[in-house]
């Protein structure tokens, strides 16, 4: 609306055994978006809003993959690590997942053309209310940059395939109701819809996006830890490996042929010799198309697996979090060698937590064999709930180093989606009726809109609302009387 660039700063912390994420500042960086300026603004926001100074323990920072934010040299993450050496950079896992899906969707030219045709099909109906009324329901738009949003578009097109083909045929033949350019566009889309490759890709990516969307929603949640992420990625990898088989391809091909798409015929005419020997051009062409699509199908899956391994290879650095996952309790206590390896892995990342490896090992063994903890551990679903359990049972002081390690695990920000969610709120706060609102007022309204839980808690305590009105009234004379004498 006002064409300004905003920097959202959020913090993730542990308080009373519970993990919290809070928006603390919104800074206008339209004038200068260099790494030095952004790093200084983040440092200033942390110091001003939450009292973080150079001696405060900061264990992580997470951004998207922009070069000025995540580059190895002269970037925001590198400059902040100079101030807080323990603030290890984590490339937002949700962004990396989107890049994995994007690479699989753009790896082959014919697949790229398929997604282009899906986007054109959505725009054909969404850009005209007259054409939109021809369909039952709404055809979701296909965002050109948010690849994961295309899953809903593909699923809808697959569900409405027959209806879409019939509607496009009517538009193509309706000379009275539509001009020549609209009918030509409908004719082109109809050809694409009847193309056997596009129908097959429709079935393939409907299956892939149904798996990817589950993973994307998980990575966009705030209560995730490295152990759970690693487990989910391995589950996804096994599902993709399971698809890479002849049976899966035959199932997708069968569902493709049920829609009766057009299979292109060979331009070469059959000779008399071929006819006499029983040559069938349709059968031969279908076999060629089938073999070609099978090769493309396996290439898509291989690209997906390769990108998954490349972009999430850093998850191995957090192998040490397995020590604290409730499902592993009692398991590492028996395997001393594996336990020592994981403790050494933790020590490399957080040397200030594991000062004495033997003392840490002793605390861990006592925790794993403690009867009181063992009886209650079945209530803990993940590492964050284990930390809350230790805090509730008053065992944080009894296991200080282990509690610090668990806190470091759950505090590490693996995604930056909490900052991106604030910009969804920003669209509601700063609308066209508030286009001239100053940045300071907008920031305060944003904090009220985002941190509604804190606002509700304050509103329920004492005379909070009356105190706010009184402070507002006493700042300067108002046009109306807000204060009344008793």
Task: Tell me what the structure shows.
Strand 1 and strand 2 (18-28) form a beta hairpin. The strands form two sheets. This protein has a two-stranded antiparallel ribbon. The chain has a two-stranded parallel ribbon with strand order 3-4. The protein is built from 23 helices and four strands. It has helices at 35-50, 67-70, 76-83, 93-106, 109-126, 129-132, 150-159, 161-173, 180-194, 196-219, 226-243, 246-257, 272-276, 281-311, 336-349, 357-369, 371-376, 383-392, 400-411, 417-429, 439-450, 452-459, 464-475, and strands at 6-15, 18-28, 60-63, 88-91. With 486 residues, the protein is mainly α.
Question: How would you summarize what this structure contains?
Answer:
With 486 residues, this protein is mostly helical. The protein is built from 23 helices and four strands.
Topology:
Elements: E1 6-15, E2 18-28, H1 35-50, E3 60-63, H2 67-70, H3 76-83, E4 88-91, H4 93-106, H5 109-126, H6 129-132, H7 150-159, H8 161-173, H9 180-194, H10 196-219, H11 226-243, H12 246-257, H13 272-276, H14 281-311, H15 336-349, H16 357-369, H17 371-376, H18 383-392, H19 400-411, H20 417-429, H21 439-450, H22 452-459, H23 464-475
Parallel strand pairs: 3-4
Antiparallel strand pairs: 1-2
Helix pairs in contact: 1-3, 4-10, 4-14, 5-9, 7-10, 8-9, 10-11, 10-12, 11-14, 18-19, 20-21
């Amino acid at each position: 609306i006002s064409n300004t660039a905003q920097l959202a700063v959020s913090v993730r912390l542990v308080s009373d055994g519970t993990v919290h994420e809070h928006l603390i500042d919104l800074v206008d960086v339209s004038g200068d978006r260099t790494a030095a300026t952004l790093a200084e603004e983040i440092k200033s926001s942390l110091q001003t809003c939450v009292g973080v100074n150079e001696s405060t323990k900061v264990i992580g920072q997470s951004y998207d993959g922009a070069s000025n934010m995540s580059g190895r040299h002269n970037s925001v993450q590198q400059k902040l690590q100079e101030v807080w050496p323990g603030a290890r950079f984590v490339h937002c896992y949700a962004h990396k997942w989107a890049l994995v899906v994007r690479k699989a969707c753009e790896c082959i030219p014919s697949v790229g053309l398929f997604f282009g045709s899906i986007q054109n099909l959505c725009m054909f109906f969404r850009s005209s209310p007259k054409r939109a009324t021809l369909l039952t329901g709404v055809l979701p738009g296909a965002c050109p940059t948010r690849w994961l949003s295309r899953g809903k578009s593909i699923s809808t097109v697959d569900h409405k395939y027959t209806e879409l083909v019939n509607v496009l045929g009517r538009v193509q033949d309706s000379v009275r109701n539509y001009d020549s350019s609209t009918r030509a566009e409908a004719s082109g889309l109809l050809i694409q819809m009847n193309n056997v490759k596009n129908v097959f890709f429709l079935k393939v990516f409907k299956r892939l996006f149904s798996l990817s969307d589950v993973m994307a929603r998980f990575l966009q949640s705030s209560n995730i830890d490295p152990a759970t992420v690693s487990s989910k990625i391995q589950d996804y990898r096994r599902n993709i490996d399971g698809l890479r088989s002849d049976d899966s391809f035959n199932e997708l091909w069968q569902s493709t042929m049920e829609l009766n798409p057009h299979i292109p015929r060979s331009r070469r005419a059959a000779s008399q010799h071929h006819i006499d020997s029983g040559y069938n051009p349709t059968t031969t062409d279908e076999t060629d198309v089938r073999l070609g699509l099978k090769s493309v199908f396996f290439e898509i899956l291989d690209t997906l697996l390769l990108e998954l391994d490349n972009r999430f290879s850093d998850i191995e650095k957090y192998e040490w979090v397995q020590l604290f996952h409730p499902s592993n309790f009692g398991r590492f206590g028996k395997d001393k060698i594996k336990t020592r390896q994981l403790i050494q892995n933790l020590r490399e990342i957080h040397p200030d937590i594991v000062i004495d490896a033997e003392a840490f090992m002793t605390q861990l063994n006592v925790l794993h064999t403690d009867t009181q903890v063992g009886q209650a551990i079945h209530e803990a679903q993940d590492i964050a709930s284990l930390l809350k359990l230790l805090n509730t049972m008053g065992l944080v002081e009894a296991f200080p180093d282990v509690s610090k390690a668990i806190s470091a695990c759950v505090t590490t920000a693996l995604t930056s989606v909490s900052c991106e969610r604030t910009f969804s709120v920003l669209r509601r706060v700063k609308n066209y009726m508030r286009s001239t609102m100053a940045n300071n007022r907008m920031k305060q309204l944003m904090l009220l809109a985002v941190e509604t839980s804190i606002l509700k808690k304050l509103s329920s305590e004492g005379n909070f609302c009356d105190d706010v009105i009184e402070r507002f009234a006493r700042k300067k004379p108002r046009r109306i009387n807000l204060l009344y004498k008793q």
